[in-house]
């Protein structure tokens, strides 16, 4: 799994910690978009959006393809699926804790 950083790359968690990058991923989840579209929607500068896209691309979260003179970006779900698998171990833990809380609250009623 790639969610742990090595010396040369940022971990996916570090990449996702930045709110603008999460916004870009949310927008790409809906449909593929050009840099210009992302600039307009995110209200960031073109260099700012390009920087975030570069980081997302290096983390494997987005892919780019050229169409005419534009770069079109799309979401790559595989790294997020790796995180989901890892988080699944903790969902079981929290599910049990929430069940315990529910039982406690039911006893108090």
Rg from alpha-carbon coordinates: 19 Å
SSE ordering:
HHEHHEEH
Count of strand segments: 3
Strand content: 5-15%
Number of helices: 5
Secondary-structure-derived class: alpha+beta
- Summarize model confidence as the mean pLDDT: 86
Query: Biggest sheet, open or closed, and with what strands and sense?
Result: 3 strands, antiparallel
Using the alpha-carbon principal axes, give the shape.
elongated
Spatially, the strands of the biggest sheet line up as 1-3-2
The helix content, as a percent range, equals 55-70%
Q: Identify low-pLDDT runs.
A: 3-9
For the termini, the CA-CA separation is 45 Å
Could you give the topology of this structure?
Layout: H1 12-16, H2 19-30, E1 33-34, H3 35-42, H4 46-58, E2 62-67, E3 70-75, H5 78-108
Antiparallel strand pairs: 1-3, 2-3
Helix pairs in contact: 3-4
Index terms:
single chain, 109 residues, alpha+beta, three-stranded antiparallel β-sheet, 5 helices, 63% helix
In words, what does this structure look like?
With 109 residues, the chain is α+β, with helices and mostly antiparallel strands. 63% of the residues lie in helices and 13% in strands. The protein is built from five helices and three strands, in the order ααβααββα. It has a three-stranded antiparallel sheet with strand order 1-3-2. A hairpin with a 2-residue loop joins strand 2 and strand 3. Helix 3 crosses helix 4. The protein starts with 11 loop residues before the first helix and ends with a helix. The model is unreliable at 3-9 (pLDDT under 50).
């Amino acid at each position: 799994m790639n969610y742990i950083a090595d010396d040369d790359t940022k971990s996916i968690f570090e990449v996702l910690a930045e709110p603008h990058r999460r916004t870009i991923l949310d927008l790409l989840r809906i449909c593929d978009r050009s840099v210009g579209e992302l600039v307009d929607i995110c209200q960031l500068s073109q260099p700012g959006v390009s920087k975030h896209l570069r980081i997302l691309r290096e983390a494997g979260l987005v892919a780019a393809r050229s169409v005419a003179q534009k770069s079109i970006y799309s979401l790559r779900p595989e790294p997020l699926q790796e995180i989901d698998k890892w988080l699944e171990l903790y969902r079981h833990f929290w599910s049990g804790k929430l069940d315990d809380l529910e039982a406690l609250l039911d006893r108090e009623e």
